[in-house]
Design goal:
single chain, alpha/beta, Rossmann fold, eight-stranded mixed sheet, 8 strands
């Protein structure tokens, strides 16, 4: 049996492949630079992959499980600079009797967009693209679970298409107020020069950085994968982060009608500050804290995170 600590280590990926099967996704182009080597995401439990053409690009997704309960599918959205593989250790728990669909967000993982990335790619744009994908897939209603960037995208999706979201889980996300373009240039662009090279490509970071900023417990293994997933996202990381900053997420929370679960790691150093305002803004909300975990709870403690999320989506 693979335990939580094993799942957080790089060595466990090989063992997990033996348990979940070898359904590794094909190589995806690196978004960092044209001609760069392709990147292979970690093996996951997924039983099907798909690509949906949208205006300007292609949304990539993976699925697991079959519905045996009459409940809506569970949609999973990953973190900034991540990919759908971030969910690979939690998805099997959620897929017990349910259909699970994990998306690569625009410009991330296997979701490739044509041309030069814009200065800002907004949360509303990503939410609309996902609604278009669900329409094409014939899915009317979902339980929506998003972490970090995924949680931020999930807020406008749930707020402006309330009939499409049965339940909402927002995991370790920056639920802040709108910033101006001048504030973005000062507080984001100017402070991130060490994270990107002169061409705007993400550079490798040390495990100590995510430990210090996000309180990550298993920083070494998570950082190794993060370097790869950030390279795959490449030039789309900064535009997407600016899209988070330019959105009044805190104000949009007031429009959310779905029962909502806020999830944090007990060692999270980045996102707990948004908790009080989010709890005050949401109409139907409760909060869960995952033990022995930093902000990336679905990677840092997938067993405990999976149990919390499973209980939420299955509750009547």
């Amino acid at each position: 049996m693979i335990n939580r600590r094993d799942l957080a280590t790089g060595a466990a990926i090989t063992a997990a492949a033996a348990v979940f099967g070898s359904g590794a996704r094909a190589q995806i182009p690196s978004g960092a630079a044209s001609g760069a080597a392709s990147i292979v995401p970690p093996v996951g439990p997924w039983t099907k992959f798909g690509d949906l053409r949208r205006a300007g690009g292609t949304l990539h997704y993976a699925t697991l499980g079959e519905d045996r309960s009459g409940r809506p599918p569970i949609v999973l959205l990953h973190k900034l600079g991540g990919w759908l593989s971030d969910w690979r250790f939690v998805a099997p728990v959620l897929a017990q009797g349910r259909r699970v669909i994990a998306f690569d967000l625009p410009g991330h993982g296997g979701s490739q967009w044509l041309g030069t990335a814009p200065y800002i790619h907004t949360l509303g744009e990503s939410a609309a693209l996902l609604i278009g994908a669900l329409d094409e897939m014939g899915i009317d209603r979902v339980d929506l679970l998003g972490t970090s960037l995924g949680g931020c995208v999930a807020v406008p999706l749930a707020a402006f298409w309330p009939e499409r979201v049965a339940k909402l889980a927002i995991i370790s996300s920056a639920l802040g107020v709108r910033r101006s373009l001048a504030e973005i240039a000062t507080n984001i662009d100017a402070r991130q020069t060490a994270l990107f090279d002169a061409g705007g490509n993400p550079v490798p970071t040390a495990p100590a950085m995510i430990e210090q900023i996000f309180g990550i417990v298993h920083a070494e293994a998570i950082n190794v994968e993060g370097i790869a997933s950030r390279k795959a996202a490449g030039h789309w990381i900064q535009p997407t982060e600016r899209g988070v900053a330019i959105t009044d997420i805190a104000g949009t929370l007031k429009r959310v009608e779905a029962p909502t679960l806020l999830v944090y790691g007990d060692r999270d150093k980045a996102y707990r500050k948004f908790q009080p305002a989010a709890e005050a803004a949401l109409k139907h909300v409760r909060t869960a804290v995952v033990p022995n975990s930093g902000a990336f709870v679905i990677q840092d403690n997938p067993a405990a995170a999976g149990a919390v999320l499973k209980a939420f989506v299955e509750a009547r």
